[in-house]
Design goal:
alpha+beta, 6 helices, 10 strands, about 25% helix
């Protein structure tokens, strides 16, 4: 999880728990679990998404423009103040995803995410990415908006490390108590028993995997965890998804 720059395409599919098990069986020896999913286990990912006061980033994203971006703070498991975490900027242009991130200790990340002031450089930091994040923080006047967490199982192709699969379940979110160290609690974003399968690749999806998609009649969907949470929030607050809410 130490990579700092990712460039790839992503496709998303909604699958059930039982279908997940069938897909794993079909992977045979084509893919291996990554080091955090030994024995096909799931690990916890926790995020805080940052946005403008009027939710401009997520509102823009839901309008499906050619270019959009998100800024989030991520930890693997529930951190404490001495845990290293990642501050990320994720950009998407015409279907291609570019994710850039740098490492902070948790309390330093909180400060940077709202001020954009670059601290003295440490060997675990990436100065260029911090400059990009600093520009975004100051341009948008970001504030923490949503805590969003889920459990993930991740796999990579044994013949092409750029081809990866992730399965995310138990997606929960909250708009209060926006601190990673407070732990995992909140409201479900998608129904129990469903999970999001993400197919991540650079050039094209291998033929053998397209045959798996065809076998289960899976159709890619436009799905955003933060976007779905925001839509749920609008429905709960207003009873409808207001275009400019």
């Amino acid at each position: 999880m130490s990579n700092e720059v990712f460039n790839r395409k992503e496709e998303k599919y909604i699958v059930t728990d039982s279908l997940y098990k069938n897909i794993l069986t079909d992977l045979h020896n084509k893919m291996k679990a990554d080091e955090y999913s030994k024995n096909n286990s799931f690990y916890q990912i926790c995020n805080i998404y940052y946005d403008t006061e009027d939710n401009n980033l997520i509102r823009t994203s839901l309008q499906k423009p050619k270019y959009k971006e998100k800024i989030r703070l991520r930890s693997y498991g529930t951190p404490d103040k001495n845990t290293k975490v990642f501050l990320e900027i994720k950009k998407k242009y015409k279907g291609c995803v570019n994710k850039r991130r740098t490492t902070f200790y948790l309390n330093d990340a909180y400060k940077f995410a709202v001020t954009g002031d670059i601290p003295p450089l440490e060997d675990y930091m990436n100065l260029q990415i911090m400059k990009e994040l600093s520009y975004a923080v100051k341009t948008y006047s970001l504030v923490p908006k949503v805590y969003l967490s889920y459990q993930r199982a991740a796999f990579f192709s044994v013949s092409d490390s750029n081809f990866r699969l992730t399965f995310d379940k138990n997606i929960i979110a909250r708009r209060d108590d926006l601190a990673l160290e407070y732990g995992v609690f909140g409201e479900r974003v998608i129904p129990e028993g469903q999970m999001i399968m993400e197919v991540k690749y650079c050039n094209r999806i291998p033929l053998w995997f397209t045959e798996i998609l065809r076998k289960y009649n899976l159709t890619k969907t436009s799905f955003s965890k933060y976007g779905t949470e925001y839509t749920n929030f609008l429905l709960k607050e207003y009873g409808e998804v207001k275009k400019y809410a």
